[in-house]
Design a protein that fits this description.
Length: about 900
């Protein structure tokens, strides 16, 4: 053992592998795959850094080397010319694809069924094996003797797989090589255990064994099927230069020459090659780092000038967004190289950006396919066709997908002393580079007053300290005002070919975020036109992703709904939603998901959506005590649904008092409840101001005229520049029915009793006859027209006789009403004698800025006299419609039409939020 220690510390002693282990462990060691890699070789031509002993001062670097292979380019005439071009098809199978003997058989079947003239197949190590190999190194370095049992597990995994797959000489040959490799690895790890450290190149050499074993097994399975097949150790062919940034650059010229030489000695129409591993120009084994097997396939595809490179994985292709965050994400049929590059950079499970570089040179398409779903065509990554008619492309075709990066922080450096000072940005990012932080995104205002950039949250503390140290003098002098850190951020990137140069795309993106009540903290858009990047609060990231994905028609417009008041109107609305849900999803791409229903005493909550076919039973069986704050928080708290709406189907002023707070939180409100818009003027004005200032919507069409388009008609007139002079109408379906039937000698009490029996009146008819409901509708229209009136400013002619206002019950009122029939009968007779009829109307006189509710007489040819049943009618007199008023007429009462009006508002909201109209 003394001789081993002295060998490490003494630069004059350099051992071959045999000599090393003779001293260290009395065991012979040779590099794995000795049969193909002769040892020893002159160290000046081929060496691997073996082990180094840290913590010892040395005059010169002392390293023990083990030879790997001599792949100096043979200058002798080639035996077989390497064919290149479309005859080759390249496949890459990841660790999951070769994770078991059964899966290796599936891979072999895919290769055999490929009708390409020549096939080059790159394989990873079996699933988890690379991690197991790294674990061996870590245990040995930590002097943990369990590395021995861990190595035995590696042996058993491959031995049992080979026993399932192979037979005869192939099995014997593989097992012999496997045991030989394991024996060598055990000796190498023992040396690591003793030294307590391993060089990076030695680690790379050890972990590459998994690829060697899987390639050998797969090639044997192919040969057993009667197909000529060779396996390639790509360390003999693929030469790369380490860049010092945990990446490598392929040496295409040298690799091409070595490939020619290898193929001349091993000609075959099917080649199974190792992924992930390669060699340096000095023949030292190395790896291609992260996603190395994909990179191997792309490089080899470029060297062969292959027809295509197929990356086999466990997903159906590239998704338009992370399907774990957006359940409606779709598989993209095609992506350009640049789009794939951008999406992979921003975290999409596509390819590593460097994988795309080799194939881009020769326009070789990459196909992403699912080995577990061969029927799926996958995603094709290629150069876009040059003959695309841009005029025929729809907006959504410019945005291919969305990706996110979480766990970031924004660093903002600002100050007036930055403007116009050369070198400031260089100094900022020089300081960031010095601490080794990775800058994900940069944004700078043209004023140069501030620079902000995003870095991983785990690195932000070091970055902030470095900047404060670097700019301490500028901060103390006031030239810089601050170095601020904004934690808990995420990045959302929209990616698409020529997206940024297409009018309307950026507007649509930011409009979708605004409508989902999501604030953008920083923006970056490159002139390459392939992505728009925004920084958001981490908690908003999923909602933002779903909102923009939905807005570009890539998925349904999904709205989380809370229904307040499952009474007559609320229950009818829920039934209408139930009956129309499937049609809305299939034909209109709208998903209205009721996640909460609450009454005055009981509420029902669901995260995924309540089954509306059984909501009544569920409310009874699974309902809990109603609590408005908890209800609202639940409806709004689902981060997977970007849009939230509360539908108030009550007539409760207490519920209406919450509208302002709900809208401030970004919750949309839809209601037939008149209380908010007819309440105190200052509260109404405050509510409308908030609505105008934000992207939160407030719809209340059904407050006037049930399902009739009264509010929308009035707004349409005003928004197009018309001037309202007068609004006059029969706003009560109940009173319309009563006066339409108060004819031919019938008494008023008789008609009221008939209306009550038919269900047209409230349980207490005085609520209708008092005119209060009509008064609220009049004040709503007056305020919509611009009049600043209080409810008390509207005089009302009540039809409830004064003596009956104090009746204790509706029954008592109905019994005594007939005693007062004479007064109204006389008014009707006078009107009839004059050729007129009685109608109970509300009037908004905009010119004189007044409103009133009263019983009036109209000629029999007047539109108000032509009504039947419970119809409403409203006449708009404007500067455009002065001689002939604009008339809106139709059913104005009843649960079905009122619920229908509310439903219409909900669909209008969906349209505003991005659903196709």
């Amino acid at each position: 053992m003394a001789s081993f220690s002295s060998a490490i510390s003494n630069p004059r002693h350099v051992f071959s592998p045999n000599a090393l282990l003779h001293h260290a462990n009395h065991n012979k060691i040779c590099t794995s795959q000795c049969s193909t890699l002769p040892l020893p070789l002159p160290l000046s031509r081929s060496r691997i850094g073996f082990i180094s002993r840290p913590g010892r001062k040395e005059k010169s670097k002392s390293t023990i080397f083990a030879s790997v292979t001599d792949t100096t380019v043979d200058k002798s005439p080639e035996k077989v010319k390497l064919p290149k071009g479309d005859v080759w098809s390249v496949h890459k199978f990841g660790g999951t694809c070769v994770g078991s003997s059964e899966r290796i058989k599936n891979v072999a079947q895919i290769i055999l069924s490929d009708d390409s003239e020549r096939k080059f197949v790159v394989v990873s190590a079996m699933s988890k094996v690379t991690d197991m190999m790294y674990d061996l190194i870590n245990r040995a370095q930590s002097r943990d003797e369990s590395y021995i049992s861990a190595l035995d597990a590696v042996l058993e995994k491959h031995r049992s797989t080979a026993l399932d797959l192979l037979g005869g000489d192939d099995l014997g040959s593989f097992l012999s090589q496997l045991h030989h490799d394991i024996s060598n690895l055990k000796a190498m790890l023992r040396a690591i255990y003793i030294a307590g450290h391993a060089t990076e190149s030695f680690t790379d050499f050890v972990v590459g064994h998994g690829e060697l074993w899987s390639a050998q097994m797969l090639s044997s399975v192919i040969r057993q099927a009667g197909v000529d097949c060779q396996w390639m150790d790509t360390r003999e062919v693929l030469i790369v230069n380490p860049t010092g940034t945990n990446q490598v650059d392929p040496d295409y010229e040298e690799s091409s020459q070595r490939l020619e030489k290898w193929y001349s000695k091993n000609p075959s129409s099917t080649v199974i090659a190792t992924g992930f591993i390669a060699s340096t120009p000095q023949n030292i084994p190395t790896t291609l780092k992260r996603d190395g097997s994909d990179f191997s396939a792309a490089i080899m595809g470029a060297l062969f000038r292959a027809r295509q490179v197929t990356i086999w994985t466990d997903v159906d292709g590239v998704y338009s967004a992370d399907p774990r965050k957006v359940s409606e994400a779709v598989i993209l049929s095609t992506l350009s190289y640049q789009e794939a590059w951008e999406m992979s950079y921003f975290g999409a499970n596509v390819l590593h950006p460097r994988t795309i570089i080799p194939v881009m040179r020769y326009d070789i398409p990459i196909i992403i396919r699912n080995i577990f779903n061969l029927s799926a065509p996958g995603t094709k990554i290629c150069r876009p066709a040059a003959d695309v008619d841009e005029d025929s492309q729809r907006l959504e075709s410019y945005v291919k997908g969305f990706a996110t990066i979480d766990n970031l922080a924004l660093v903002n450096v600002e100050g007036t002393g930055m403007a116009g000072v050369p070198g400031t940005a260089s100094a900022i990012f020089g300081a960031v580079k010095d601490v080794g932080a990775n800058v994900i995104m940069i944004s700078q205002a043209s004023s140069e007053h501030s620079v902000c950039f995003a870095v991983p949250e785990k690195e932000v503390k070091a970055v902030a300290e470095a900047l404060e140290s670097r700019f301490r003098q500028a901060l103390e002098a006031g030239r810089l005002s601050q170095v601020a850190v904004i934690p808990n951020c995420s990045i959302l990137a929209a990616v698409g070919q020529k997206m940024a140069s297409t009018p309307g795309v950026s507007a649509t993106l930011f409009n979708a975020l605004a409508k989902a009540n999501i604030n953008v903290r920083a923006i970056a858009q490159g002139c390459s036109e392939y992505n728009i990047t925004v920084v958001l609060k981490r908690e908003d990231c999923i909602r933002a992703l779903r909102a923009v994905h939905s807005r570009f028609y890539l998925s349904r417009t999904t709205i989380a709904m809370g229904i307040i008041g499952p009474g007559l109107i609320g229950a009818t609305l829920l039934d209408q939603l139930r009956d129309q849900a499937a049609t809305l999803k299939e034909e209109f791409n709208i998903d209205l998901r009721v996640v909460g229903i609450t009454g005055s005493s009981t509420m029902l909550l669901s995260n995924s959506g309540i089954d509306l076919s059984t909501w009544r039973e569920l409310l009874k069986q699974k309902g809990e005590a109603a609590e408005m704050e908890k209800f609202v928080q639940h409806v709004r708290g689902n981060h997977f649904i970007p849009n939230t709406v509360l539908v108030d189907c009550t007539a409760d002023s207490a519920v209406a008092s919450h509208y302002y707070d709900w809208m401030r939180k970004g919750i949309h409100v839809v209601t037939p409840n008149k209380k908010a818009n007819s309440g105190p003027l200052d509260q109404y004005l405050k509510l409308r101001a908030l609505q105008r200032q934000s992207y939160t919507h407030y719809f209340y069409e059904a407050t006037v005229g049930a399902g009739l388009p009264i509010i929308s008609t009035l707004r349409g007139l005003l928004e197009t520049g018309d001037k309202i002079l007068r609004i006059e109408g029969i706003f009560s379906g109940t009173l319309s029915y009563i006066f339409n039937n108060f004819v031919d000698g019938r008494t008023f009490s008789e008609v009221v009793a008939e209306a009550k029996k038919a269900g047209y009146t409230e349980p207490d008819p005085r609520d209708d006859l008092s005119g209060t409901d009509v008064r609220r509708k009049v004040i709503i229209l007056a305020r919509e027209s611009g009049l600043k009136l209080e409810l008390s400013d509207i005089p009302v002619e009540s039809l409830v006789p004064k003596p009956l206002e104090a009746c204790a019950s509706a029954e008592e009122f109905m019994q005594k009403l007939s005693e007062f029939d004479d007064d109204l009968t006389k008014e009707r007779e006078i009107a009839e004698e004059a050729g007129e009829v009685l109608r109970y109307v509300g009037v908004v006189d905009v010119v004189n800025q007044i409103g009133e509710v009263k019983l009036r007489r109209y000629k029999k040819d007047h539109p108000f006299a032509q009504l039947s049943g419970s119809d409403n009618i409203i006449a708009f007199t404007t500067t455009r419609y002065k001689e002939q008023p604009l008339i809106v007429r139709g059913p104005g009462a009843g649960a079905q039409v009122t619920a229908g009006g509310v439903f219409c508002d909900i669909l209008r909201l969906a349209s505003y939020l991005g659903a196709p109209s």
